[in-house]
Each structure stands twice: as C-alpha cells, then as structure tokens.
Design brief:
By secondary structure, the chain is of the alpha/beta class. 29% of the residues lie in helices and 22% in strands. It has a six-stranded parallel β-sheet, sandwiched between helices.
Length: 223
C-alpha cells in the first residue's frame, strides 16, 4: 500500500507491506526507521503519541498480491529478515488467526524463520507469533507451527526461548524440513536481505528432485 503523511510532505508517497490478514477489518503496516523519510515518520508518530492525537494519513491501495497459492503446499517455510517478517505475519494471520480463512488447504506444517540483529527487535511481533503458536498447539484442526527466531548479535545469556542466539544454518534447517516431511510439496518463501534470499534459493534448488518438490518465492528487503 502507498502511504502519505501530509504533515511531512503533500507529495511524497512510499510503499509499505501490509501485515494485517486478508479477513481483517483494517489495514495494518509496520514501519521501521531505516532511511530519512521513515525516521521522520517514526518521529511524527512519537510526537503524536505524546500529544494524544492521531496524524492524518492518506493511503492508496493496497496493490498487488502474492503470485503463488501457499494453500496448495503441504509444508511452508516462511523466512523473514528483519522487517521482512511483515508479509509473513499477514500469511500467518490467514492460517492461524482468529479471523483465519475457512477455504480448504493442504498445509500440514509451517516453519517460521525470523532473523534479526538484536533481541529487542523481536518484541515487534513476538506476542503475535506466540499467539499463533498457542493456537496451533491447542487446535488439532490447524497445521503445526515451528518458530525459529534468530538474533545474530545476541549473547547466549540474553536469548530466551524461542529466541536463538546466532545466525541460522539454512542447510540444517532445510534438511530438517525436508527430512521430517519427506515427499511433501514444500514452499520456501523468503523476504529479507539479498544474501539471505540467495542462500535459501540455492538450498531449494539443491533439494529439488523427482521425489521432492521444493518451490521458492521471494521478496528482497534490507535490514
């Protein structure tokens, strides 16, 4: 969705990924202060929160859609780097949320791999992820859900479950996914830095065979 903040500029529009589910009554986005404009947005939001007022926001869209049907796959591995987790959260709400879709699907298990530098960044979506995990564990009609949350600069003593200190080993993770669900059609979706996306792409290519189908889709977001 393209978003404009008139208090900052009347003509400057920027695209952001939607993190709300397709059946939600609202459109939700998450913005991280990565550049000059997004830093100004965060500053404006902080000032408005202190003054107990809402800024005027103009939206155009949403535009586009996922060019694949993840409901056709038995196993999903959804990998996000930093704020690249945003579209994945929307997919999880569609699968596990209170207002999840009732359309039929083939999904047996979902793996979520979220990679970020610092533990504090996990707070952004941790409650949402844990809520979906609790739903998956308590409702046998839902797919299983595995959370692998890696903080690359965290110390072991600072990482409490489900957070894991250090970088993920994508070869090991892919071996676990394809080993536990051998023969199941698998989709790997990656949204994050180019290096992470390319590594997962290579891992998927290496595992495709006559007996194992591993499809790959991606978006490139930088930390």
């Amino acid at each position: 969705v393209f978003v404009n903040f008139p208090e900052l500029s009347l003509t400057e529009w920027h695209p952001f990924s939607v993190s709300s589910g397709p059946n939600d009554d609202y459109v939700e986005i998450h913005i991280r202060a990565l550049g000059d404009h997004t830093r100004r947005i965060v500053t404006l939001a902080t000032e408005c929160a202190k003054a107990d007022r809402r800024p005027l926001i103009r939206a155009d869209g949403p535009y586009g859609h996922l060019d694949f049907n993840y409901r056709r796959y038995g196993v999903l591995m959804l990998s996000g780097g930093g704020i690249g987790i945003t579209p994945i959260v929307g997919m999880l709400k569609d699968i596990f949320g209170e207002r999840r879709s009732t359309a039929p699907h083939c999904i047996k298990h979902v793996f979520v791999v979220w990679v970020m530098p610092h533990v504090s960044e996990a707070d952004l979506f941790m409650d949402t992820l844990l809520t979906h995990k609790a739903a998956a564990d308590s409702d046998p009609t839902l797919p299983g859900l595995t959370l692998l949350i890696h903080c690359t600069r965290a110390k072991e003593e600072d990482a409490k479950a489900p957070i894991i200190a250090g970088r993920p080993s994508f070869p090991d993770t892919m071996d676990d996914v394809t080993g536990r669900f051998a023969g199941a059609s698998t989709l790997v979706f990656a949204c994050g830095p180019g290096r992470m996306v390319n590594q997962l792409w290579d891992e998927c290519t290496a595992r495709n065979s006559r007996h194992q189908r591993v499809d790959f889709h991606h978006e490139t977001f930088e930390f």
